[in-house]
User: What shape does this take?
Amino acid sequence: MKIALVSPYDFGYHGGVVTHISQLSEQLQRLGHVVKILAPLDSSSDLRQENLIPIGRPVPVPAGGSIARISLSIWRERRVRALLKEENFDVLHVHEPLAPILPLSVINSSETANVGTFHAFHGSGYMYFFSKGLMKRWFERLDSLIAVSEPAKDYVSKAFPGDYNIIPNGIDVEFFSKNVDPFDAFKDGKLNILFVGRMEKRKGLKYLLQAYGRLKWEHPDIRLIVVGPGNPGKDVYRIMSERNLRDVVFVGQVTDAQKRRYFQTADIFCAPNTGKESFGIVLCEAMASGKAIVASNIPGFDSVVTNEKEGLLVPPKDDEAIYLALKQLVESPSRRSAMGGRGLTSVKAYSWNKLMPKIVNCYKQAISHHSLRLAKSEAVIHQR
Assistant: This one.
């Protein structure tokens, strides 16, 4: 098949959806499909990806406690229409299909099978309800529906009920489980706690720092490694200053190869996110690395990690609970090892090898549904 993967987000700025699309492209090509990626890209980006077709310049827009970099250009539809006609795709796989503006332009211009994957979860159906009437005609042109988790499905279904296939984001299990060298600078006898995520409030770093500050008094030989892009913010700096926190290392943005080494360097992985997560891909990465986990008990996470199995789940925004969970794992190497081992088994359910047949089947369903949709449309025209 010839497939277009469509992203509303700046493809030069790594986030969960962009990473998923990039990996999905690789997996589809490995299976012999021809794949093109349609996405906004900043003109200053040095990203070079052979099958990427940049469309539109992204601008930062606040969205769900984060910043989404999307293109708001309404003048691109003519180019999109010409591109789709020239490429003659069998399937258009549109991620966040109701997000502005590129996904809507692609669906509006499409004359082929459309697949929509819904990633978002923001705790309520407000955004979709607000735009339900406006978006209905685009939604009805989707021939197959995918949600990355039950929370994502519940979120979109409140406004747009349908027959959704639950297919989580995939992970290259072998990549993260491969035995690579940890960073020598951090193998000095101290126990390493790892945080991976953007420096955004909803990622909950301040609650981890508060818990770490208390734990550090009891266990001086621990260290917190913080991996991820962005400015930590005033709350983080205030906590570190007030508590005079030591052995907190901010690494910044890293490559996937470097991230894999940080996971191998860690003894415990902590994800103190406060909510608004549709899926816990970073938890899968930690599990594939064989690490015990402390994570918030929130939708999107609780379907990936089972409490007392691969890790410990704690209430969100509760630094006391994070402290107690970390304390248990810091003081029990055997428990950490057992949880890490169970994680290596559980994460196989999210491997690309398991998920690709389901995704390809959705494409086939979409092609069949599109044919039926065309036949019905032609019948209506004929009756007139």
Notes: The chain is about 40% helix and 20% strand. The radius of gyration is 22 Å. The mean pLDDT is 91.
